[in-house]
Specification:
Chain lengths: ~325, ~150
């Protein structure tokens, strides 16, 4: 059901742009107003989410660990699985952000007769890392539309990506990779009944929106051509704050609408894990609560303790009357 | 806000990263590319809009037809026969690679490999003079070997 809802939404996007630009000719709305508005929503929304998260107190060290924590000196500890100090936390975060280490540990559980069997399952990790790196490369590659002159590293990246010289314009490797990875990530949700059950429209919608973005981009590059010089004049106009909607095919506006929708949707959806990973208290804390007393919640106040000596002073008469011994240490060194 | 010492630099880094195209272009002009259009000829092989959008696909088709199928004549949408040749047909009117092709290609950072095999008119002129050595050296240092 979720998948159908998401699919209908994405198809509605295409129809809205097709009618809005192709029929009604609202080029300024779809070319200038919506992209700027979406970018503002993205920027302010993400900053708001980060500030909002930073306000949440984290009174306990709730690190997810799966290794031996720092203990006695002769017990070997796991620095990455149970980081003890900030340096180890940083190492763990770097591996998490750049190598998706927690996904690499992903297991598959299956019932084989009466037995529940766990096995290694790296496909999710492979699909995820292929998708994310391809998407990031595509994002960097698009800087050729937003810079002039185009920096050398971006040009080199572009040429490496089109290394195989297939077709003209050359086919990008990342386009193939991202399509394959998206297809896998989508089919993965459909194929497994358990996963299908827990998948919601908000899981499918980002997938389909990125699908739409990628497919419209590929169609624009290889099939329904647009004048790329005009496109760059438009994008440079956007960054110079002097935009002028280009007179190019609807496919370009569909591509632009998909990226606008994705930007506006970003802070309010699961996609916000881009910054959320840094705020995750199960990842960004050191597992040292047995060695360090951490400041508890902000509403915690230090209770007033009474020492034995103070107690003895209060009940001294009763203690002497009943013949209890008096601790003389309380009166020494005074 | 907790951990402001880490969160605020993080937010600043994020904002700087996503607004990179805005501030990195601030105050820099990006002049509209103006390729030199031949004055003595009015029409290209197809319409202007078509050529702007699809010239690379057309040239690829020409290459395929000539090299693989030994076809040398292209019939355009108006039914006129055209000799399929980059150097002899296209460059006959667009007589300068630097003033025509490169203008837009540099602007959008496109890297066509036409000139790995073909000789641009500027270079061909150089061949008749003594500049030949420096020009070919320059060309061969710029162009990687191609397998096409």
């Amino acid at each position: 059901m979720g998948a159908v809802f998401a699919l209908v939404t994405v198809l509605a996007f295409v129809i809205v742009v097709y009618v809005g630009v192709g029929v009604a000719g609202l080029k300024s709305l779809f070319g200038i107003v919506i992209p700027y508005a979406a970018f503002l929503v993205f920027l302010l929304g993400m900053v708001y989410r980060m500030i909002d998260w930073a306000k949440v107190p984290v009174p306990f060290r709730i690190v997810t660990t799966c290794g031996q924590q720092k203990s006695l000196r002769w017990i070997k500890r796991s620095r990455l699985e149970a980081p003890y100090n900030n340096f180890e936390v940083v190492l763990r975060m770097i591996l998490e952000v750049f190598a998706f280490r927690s996904l690499f540990r992903n297991l598959k559980a299956e019932l084989k007769g009466p037995n529940l069997i766990y096995g290694s399952y790296k496909w999710l990790w492979l699909g995820a890392i292929a998708f994310h790196y391809a998407f990031f490369t595509i994002l960097l590659r698009h800087l050729r539309f937003f810079t002039y002159p185009v920096p050398e590293p971006i040009q080199i990246l572009d040429q490496i990506d089109s290394f195989f010289h297939i077709g003209l314009p050359h086919l990008y490797m990342t386009d193939v990779v991202i399509l394959a990875a998206l297809t896998f990530l989508f089919l993965r949700r459909l194929a497994d009944p358990k996963l299908r059950y827990i998948s919601l429209a908000s899981d499918y919608l980002p997938l389909f929106m990125i699908y739409g973005l990628v497919i419209s981009g590929i169609l624009m590059r290889h099939f329904f051509k647009v004048d790329v010089t005009q496109v760059k004049e438009f994008t440079m106009g956007l960054v110079h704050l002097k935009p002028k909607a280009p007179n190019v095919g609807v496919i370009f506006y569909i591509h632009l609408f998909f990226i606008s929708a994705l930007m506006a949707y970003f802070p309010f959806s699961k996609l916000v894990h881009m910054v959320g990973v840094f705020f995750s208290p199960t990842r960004n804390l050191a597992n040292n609560s047995r060695a360090v007393r951490h400041e508890p919640a902000p509403w915690w106040k230090k209770p007033k303790f009474k020492t034995y000596c103070e107690w003895q002073e209060e009940f001294k008469e009763q203690l002497i009357e009943s013949g209890q011994p008096i601790d003389e240490d309380c009166y020494e060194k005074k | 806000m907790h951990d402001a010492g880490k969160v605020i630099p993080g937010i600043i880094a994020f904002v700087l990263f996503v607004t990179l195209p805005f501030w990195s272009n601030f105050g820099k002009a990006a002049p509209k590319p103006q390729p030199e259009i031949p004055k003595e000829y009015k029409k290209c092989v197809e319409s202007r809009d078509f050529m702007r959008r699809e010239h690379m696909k057309l040239l690829r088709k020409w290459r395929f037809d000539v090299v693989r199928n030994n076809m040398r004549i292209y019939i355009n949408s108006e039914g006129q026969p055209i000799n399929m040749s980059l150097q002899n047909e296209c460059m006959r009117c667009h007589s300068s690679k630097k003033k025509f092709c490169d203008v837009c290609h540099n602007y959008v950072s496109a890297h066509p490999y036409c000139w790995n095999c073909h000789i641009p008119p500027e270079e061909r002129k150089g061949w008749a003079t003594k500049e030949v050595k420096s020009l070919t050296e320059e060309a061969s240092s710029k162009q990687p070997a191609s397998h096409h």
